[in-house]
Write a structure and sequence with these properties.
- The protein is an all-alpha fold.
- It has one domain.
- Helix content is about 70%, strand content about 0%.
- The chain has six helices and no strands.
- α4 crosses α6.
- It is globular, with a radius of gyration of 16 Å.
């Protein structure tokens, strides 16, 4: 039994559509796609980084991300880490909601979501 025939590669437009859709799904049900708020933070970072790479706007992504972290007084911490520093008894669900809210700001600033 051999390997199945190779399908044609997807176009960059199809890949961007997949990324947009997946980010939207993560925003709706973050803990279905990741096991913790920190993992939600990580996966959204990687999807946004890939989106920025495909759109050739990596520098803008880094600047927008750093500005959003700065606006939340995160210092060197991630959104999830900062949330738990400020709310040590919080649930993963409430932390994930906060993480999603911050990444939605980044998405809007990048043009990934409507403003």
């Amino acid at each position: 039994m051999g390997m199945p025939p190779k399908a044609p590669l997807r176009s960059s437009r199809e890949i961007v559509e997949f990324i947009n859709e997946r980010i939207g799904h993560i925003y709706l049900r973050p803990l279905m796609y990741a096991s913790s708020a920190a993992a939600v933070d990580d996966i959204l970072h990687y999807y946004h980084e890939l989106w920025a790479e495909l759109h050739n706007c990596q520098d803008s992504y880094r600047i927008i991300g750093m500005e959003t972290l700065s606006d939340q007084d995160c210092g060197a911490a991630s959104f999830s880490h900062k949330f738990f520093l400020d709310n040590p008894d919080a649930s993963e669900a409430s932390a994930a909601s906060y993480v999603v809210a911050q990444w939605e700001k980044i998405s809007r600033s990048m043009g990934l979501l409507p403003t």
